[in-house]
Amino acid sequence: MKTKDFYYHLPEELIAQYPMKNREESRLLVLYKDSGDLEERRFKDIVDYLKPGDCLVLNDTRVIPARLFGSRKGKDEKIEFLLLKRVEKNIWETLVRPGKKVRPNNRIVFGDGLLIADVLSINEDGTRNVEFKYEGIFEEILDKLGEMPLPPYIKAKLDDRERYQTVYSKYEGSAAAPTAGLHFTKELLNKIEHNGINIAYLTLHVGLGTFRPVKVENIEEHHMHSEYYEVTEEAADIINRTKRNKGRVIAVGTTTTRTLETIANQKGEIRAAKGWTDIFIYPGYEFKMIDGLITNFHLPESTLLMLVSAFAGKEKIFKAYKYAVDNKFRFFSFGDAMFII
Question: Which domains, ranges and CATH numbers included, belong to the chain?
Answer without folding.
Answer: 3-63+159-340 (3.40.1780.10), 67-145 (2.40.10.240)
